[in-house]
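Consider the subject:
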Amino acid sequence: MQMEPRNTTEAALHDYKMGLGIFTEKMPELAQHYNTFTEYCFREGVLSKKEKQLIALGISLYSQDEYCIIYHTKGCLDEGCSEQEILEAVGVTAAFGGGAAMSQAVTLVQQSVQELNQLKQ
């Protein structure tokens, strides 16, 4: 039995997972190689998983990729980032990426943090 998403952030994560599942069915080898590559990139190394998620969130904001913004905001929270750490990272991105990055930071990132933290309660 599949539960209905409780908010827009959860709905976006659900849509991404569903799309990824369909893509994986149609292109299993490519999806497997892509997943192996990204898992390798995000493993603990000289940089921590937490630092890598903060970097990925910054790149997602800069490239205006809404699904990745939500996905990596969740990744930051899952790796123990505080809201303050996330906001500092998006501030650095806004300093580099200008208004477009800032507009996503003050809307989508803050909404995602709020909604994802509500799901934990």
Q: What stands out?
A: The mean pLDDT is 93. The chain has one domain: 8-120. The first helix runs from residue 8 to 26. The CA atoms of residues 24 and 32 lie 8 Å apart.
